[in-house]
């Protein structure tokens, strides 16, 4: 037998309090006195039961009306066995509304994600789309084709043959989920009888075989932003798979793949390339023409340039963050080119050069030998004192 109490006083609200005010107060008090937060405290457990009993009455419009009119005796028989039965503590969706956050903290989330009667949205899709480095530099509008489940046109997503309707699942009552309770604790799980649909299809549609969805090829135009990096994922909201029973589409993710370039290598917003130069250009210095991603530019190489020497061309790279006014750099590696065939005149000149270089090399060798010899002599003197 439940103890007589003033339910409004128990919840700390006025008699004319709104449903939201009652729910807010109940949530606060229920969390305060919950047994898991007050272990080995009989007084808190008793208070928690009183708060729950008060809310059981005041949250129900009919019970509250009887309580306001007849007092405690007008409603206490509505509880199982004339008292409060914890196995009946359900309130429909209110249970999740009030304790969702509390149980999320205890069980790691997910308690409110599958609310009763809420149809899940369609799944997200991911497709790969290849573009050139030039496209990645300037951006482009790209036409793509995506194969995805769409709402069946023949049955309009119901999954049933024309002239028939799905019947409500008897197991879950159309909720798509069932509640498993043990004492105070309650857990919601997908209904096995209807696989979460909430309905049973006795006469499935010939086109979709009861799924309500059929695969179709969709054509979309998407914007590839300037400066997009390789493997970037571009989200297109609402262009994923269609949801069951008319639920919203999921999202589409475009995974950008930049094709290998024949001339440039990209690292972040910088571009790298190699340019062949002749022996005379490297020795005497020259102004050479260098291809860039969007045009050509001129680069001055100094006399005595060595093969594999790298030169930096500022702001000739990719747009940083899609901003053409802030570009990366281009790095040019100079490669000394040896002609595979020479004319007679070129051979004559190279022979003359070879003789000059030979004398210079011999002089350099003798100079180096003398330096080594002098150095060893100093070391020997140091040893002998």
Report on this model:
This protein is of the alpha+beta class. The model is unreliable at 77-98 and 100-117 (pLDDT under 50). The chain is elongated. It has eight helices and 17 strands. It has four domains: 7-107, Orthogonal Bundle (Helix Hairpins); 117-153 and 210-260, Urease metallochaperone UreE, N-terminal domain (HSP40/DNAj peptide-binding domain); 265-336, Urease metallochaperone UreE, N-terminal domain (HSP40/DNAj peptide-binding domain), CATH 2.60.260; 347-385. It has helices at residues 7-11, 19-33, 42-58, 61-70, 94-107, 133-138, 279-284, 344-384, and strands at residues 125-131, 140-151, 167-168, 177-182, 185-190, 199-200, 213-224, 233-236, 252-258, 265-267, 270-277, 286-291, 296-301, 310-313, 319-320, 323-327, 330-336. The longest helix has 41 residues, at 344-384. A four-stranded mixed beta sheet has the order 10-11-17-14. It has a three-stranded mixed beta sheet with strand order 1-9-8. β4 and β5 (185-190) form a beta hairpin.
In short:
The chain has 385 residues and is α+β, with helices and mostly antiparallel strands. It has 8 helices and 17 strands.
Descriptive tags:
single chain, 385 residues, alpha+beta, Helix Hairpins, HSP40/DNAj peptide-binding domain, 4-stranded mixed beta sheet, 8 helices, 17 strands
